[in-house]
Design a protein that fits this description.
- This protein starts with a strand and ends with a strand.
- The protein is built from two helices and four strands.
- It is globular, with a radius of gyration of 10 Å.
- Helix content is 24%, strand content 19%.
- By secondary structure, it is an alpha+beta fold.
């Protein structure tokens, strides 16, 4: 599983960081970044939840 954040859509709400801080973080600019683009299996459900809960739908999971 891979994950990415669309910089154009992210507004820095930080919801993804709440659901999966092992994968997501807020960069110096206050917007979400992915610390681990290749997701370990133990974090897959949390990443899917973070993507589903993102108010801007800025997270893509593939």
């Amino acid at each position: 599983m891979k994950v990415s954040v669309d910089d154009e859509r992210c507004r820095g709400h930080g919801v993804c960081c709440t659901y999966c801080p092992e994968v997501f973080d807020l960069g110096d600019d206050g917007y979400a970044v992915v610390d681990t683009p290749d997701i370990p299996s133990e974090h897959e459900n949390a990443v899917r939840t973070a993507a589903a809960m993102c108010p801007e739908r800025a997270i893509t999971v593939s």
